[in-house]
Amino acid sequence: MERNHWSTKAVIFDFDGLILDTETPELVAWEQAFSKVGGVFDRQAYLGIIGTFGDFSYQPDVVLASYYDNEQEATEAVKEARRHSVELITAQKPLPGVEKVLREARQLGMRTAIGSSSPSSWVVPHVRRLGLLEQFDLIVTFDDVNRSKPAPDIYLKVLEGLGVKAADALVLEDSQNGVVAANLAGIPVMAVPNLVTQGQDFSGAVAVLKSLEDVALRPFFEAKAIA
User: Fold this and answer.
1) Residue 2's pLDDT is what?
2) Residue 54 has pLDDT above 90, yes or no
3) Helix pair 23-37, 71-90: axis angle to 10 deg
4) 131: phi > 0 → left, psi -120 to 50 → alpha, else beta; which?
5) Which residue, 209, 217, 171, 213, is CA-closest to 192?
6) Number of neighbours of residue 101 by Cβ within 10 angstroms
7) Catalytic residue numbers?
8) Domain residues of the chain, as ranges?
9) How many DSSP H helices and E strands does the chain contain?
10) Which of these, 4, 113, 196, 208, has the minimum number of CB atoms within 10 Å of its CB?
């Protein structure tokens, strides 16, 4: 009976900055690249594009290139920044609590998914490298929708794919754009900010936690049922 009850519920993870810390290494790589040429990296503008995809309001690669007079040097500087970022990210392990939440979901018989604004070519290889690919019933990325977060499309696609109602799901997010997307999809969302996103507005989250270690699925859904 319990499995039938819990199998109608789902926990949905963001990817970048929540399962894997891709945001801190990327920020460090850009800051170092700008520092080498004496440029100014707009940290606030960069924070505004975290959690989305295809937002060209700030393009660190274009700005960095503008500091070089030689096109070849500019191209190489951007490539080096990206290489450095990938190297740092590839050395990362899953963030604390990821495996704990997946284990609890599995014990309860809940559905599990990833809803990411990044492309599949980025998300899936990393999830596989971390040894977590088989832990997810569904992975939805920017490739599967027309609009990235903060639009709700990704999370609505996850609900459709899992066959789960919004009220029976919980989103775990690390960015303001992700929280807004979950809100627009009508799904309760817990925010787990990281060092890069911790200053963002998470007023739309039902809770703001220090770590995924603090997420407790059973009490959350049982409290919703009572309410």
Assistant:
1) 46
2) no
3) 150
4) left
5) 209
6) 24
7) 14, 16
8) 2-21+93-226, 23-90
9) 10, 6
10) 4
Do 191 and 207 form a contact (C-beta atoms < 8 A)?
yes
| Mean pLDDT rounded to a whole number for the chain | 93
CATH architecture designation of domain 2-21+93-226: 3-Layer(aba) Sandwich (3.40)
Under a CB-based contact definition with an 8 Å cutoff, are residues 217 and 192 in contact?
no
Q: Is the dihedral of CA 160, 161, 165, 167 positive or negative?
A: negative
Q: What is the largest CA-CA distance in the chain?
A: 68
CA distance 182 to 176: 10
Please choose, from the candidates 173, 137, 128, 130, the residue with its C-alpha nearest in 3D space to the C-alpha of residue 158: 137
Cα–Cα dist 104/157, whole Å: 24
Give the residue from 161, 169, 209, 163 showing the smallest Cα distance to 186. Answer: 169
Bridge partners (DSSP) of residue 189 are: 171
Query: Which is nearest to 172 in space by CA: 148, 151, 196, 155?
Result: 155
Q: What is the pLDDT of residues 151-175, one digit of tens each?
A: 999 999 999 999 999 999 999 999 9
pLDDT at residue number 15: 97
Burial call 160-179: b when 16+ CB within 10 Å, e when fewer:
ebbebebebbbbbbbbbbbb
Q: What is the pLDDT of residue 44?
A: 86
Beta strands in the chain (DSSP E): 10-13, 111-115, 138-140, 169-173, 189-191, 207-208
